[in-house]
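User: I'm writing a tutorial on reading structure tokens. Could you give me a worked example: one chain, its sequence, then its tokens, then a sentence or two explaining what the tokens reveal?
Assistant: Sure. Here is the example chain.
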Amino acid sequence: MSKKISSLFFLLCVAFLFNQKLFAQTGAIGLFDDQQDIGKVKHTGSGTYDAKLQEYNLIGSGTNVWATHDEFHFMWKRMKGDFILRTNIAFIGKGVEEHRKVGWMIRSSLDTNAKHISAVVHGAGLTSLQYRKTTGGVTEEKKFELTSADVIQLERKGNTYTMSVARKGDMFVSQEVSDIDLGDDVYVGIFICAHNPDVVEKAVFNNVRIVVPAPASLVPYRQYLGSSIEILDLATQNSRIIYQSPKSLQAPNWMKDGKRLLYNSDGLLYTFDLKSNTPAVLNTGSAIHNNNDHVMSFDGKLLAISSSDKTGSSIGWVLPVTGGEPRRLTPIGPSYMHGFSPDGKYIVFCGSRNNEYDVYRIPATGGPEVRLTTAPGLDDGPEYSPDGKYIYFNSVRSGLMQVWRMKADGSEQTQLTSDDYDNWFPHISPDGKWIEFITFLKNEVSPGDHPFYKHVYLRVMPVGGGPAKVIAYLYGGQGTINTPSWAPDSKHLAFVSNSSLLFPLFPIATN
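And here are its predicted structure tokens:
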């Protein structure tokens, strides 16, 4: 009997250790390797990860992160090279100390007096970039004029560190230090400090992203980073990663049934089942060089795609949304399909004719194309409003790329955005209330270009014009939202973000 009990105990122990190993390997704390208290804290801290919400909760004590040594709770990951850290962040509860701290931290070691740089938000709203240049040295600080930031980004390029912060909905403002040598191999993570050894504080972290950006050696349009398909809740502005691949996934359309997405990768189109989180190749017949300009009809029955012909030029095609051999639509290229009219009679597209890119309209059944824009420079991304009265597009005619609107016949072309950024691909929500578009930084991208792997914003504005607000801060660009990506409920959006997938949230997919 005792022998059987001993054998059973041994098997249970092996099973327990095996399960523990599996648990660790599948991301017990999401993106992070481990967590611990740094320094001699009086109350043990802890952290949890909600895989369904992709949300982190930290609890921690500690006297301070300041002066010559630190006490706090830290959830961390070992990293090398360049990276971008980003999160939405909020304290839970009123708190005790005005200088309780929460944010991102990069440390040379887990010692209490280690060199570090931290992107910090204080309980009273002070937002600052804090750093200790030498082991045991005195902490220094750069304060922001902006207070009470709740979107925090910390980026490393060599020994240069840039902290960018915003209140949710606003654009980033930044501070930089360029002489912090923490070594290549560092500890990266989120932290909390109570600023009082007798107190325990709590904070919640959403939209936590660790991005490994494109190296300087990457050859555009020949080499690619990994991709994450994300679903954004417009009300909370929190997004969840639902699928990841080391390949380039681009331009998710939300299909009419609300149950699937459509995206392109490696010249093929895929449907993505939102319940099972699995992709499947969509049959597009002989069109096997599809790019990221594809759009569905308002009734969900037809699909317009852009695929290269034998000459290598992008041509417009139409096929059933269920798949099949496509019917050629545009006689010449380049032609990039963007929008069906609500009645299904027309398709608008961006076409290059005589070295000018303009907005064209063509009957969905085929026929002569009609040029709707004639201004010099690039006009792109045309899309009908749900009532069919207007076509929204982006144009570089005023200097920077901006969002424009015209009547369906091409008349009354009116500029809707006039800011200091480059704005691309306006998409109208199904309820006709909002315009979503992607924003590039003019210091990173020329007005007529929308490349991969840049700092970009997703923004929305009222459909008739008005102030725009940021709904997502991300690393992406080409392929992020080239096509209409609204859910049928007008409450959710799909998009693609990019990173080298060194530590995905899910097992790496092959598609």
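What the tokens reveal: The chain has two domains: 34-211, 226-499. The helical segments are 2-25.
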